[in-house]
Structures are given as C-alpha cells and as structure tokens.
Amino acid sequence: MTGDELLRVLATLANPHRLRVVAALAKQRNYVSQLARELGISRALLQVHLRKLQAAGLVSAAIEVSEDGKAMKFYEVTPFAIQLTPQAIVAAATTLTMGSELDPEVGS
C-alpha cells in the first residue's frame, strides 16, 4: 500500500459512522434503507459515508432487482488488511505524493 493509499484509508476510517458501517457490512451485505435503520442514521448521511468508503476501496456495491422489480443497491465490505507497524509507515512515507491537504490542522 502506498503512502497516499494508506492516508486515504486511515482518513476514511477515522470517523465513527464509517467504522460502524464497515462493522455492519462485515457481518452481512445490505442495502441502504435497511442499513440506515440498523445504524440509526438517515439514508442521506449513510450514502455520504458509503461513497467515501467506496472511494477508499473499502466497500463495493452491486445493483440487484428484487422479486417485485425494484432495483436495490447492495453494499459489502471489500476484503482488506492493514498492518500498521513502524516499518510499514516508513515504507509508506517514502511513496507519499500528497501534501498536507488531508490534515486541516497543518498550516493553521
């Protein structure tokens, strides 16, 4: 994993809602309405988090047609493993191309 990819994944997972989404989807793939009910958040907010998780490569989606003909978008966790050691951070840091745009604290 490159430094940029590691930053993207860690920044994405640094949100309690997104951690809960990944945890729920790790147990069972699900569609937005049901997942929103289970997590107690709005569908709109859930979709924002799902887009960020998908952009980071942590979840994937597939549209399926239900028996009544309704199109439903199912999400599931994309298999991933992150081993965070000092050596892994050294290796990732040597490949960084991003500046400080991921960290709003830098430069303020």
- CATH class bucket: Mainly Alpha
Secondary-structure element string: HHEHHEEH
CATH hierarchy: architecture: Orthogonal Bundle
Number of strands: 3
- Side-by-side strand order of the widest sheet: 1-3-2
Q: Mean pLDDT across all residues, rounded?
A: 90
Biggest beta sheet attributes: 3 strands, antiparallel
- The CATH topology turns out to be Arc Repressor Mutant, subunit A
Q: Helix fraction? A: 40-55%
Distance between the termini: 29 Å
Q: How would you describe the shape?
A: elongated
How many separate domains?
1
CATH-defined superfamily: Winged helix-like DNA-binding domain superfamily/Winged helix DNA-binding domain
Helix-strand category: alpha+beta
Strand content: 5-15%
Low-confidence stretches: 103-108
The helix tally amounts to 5
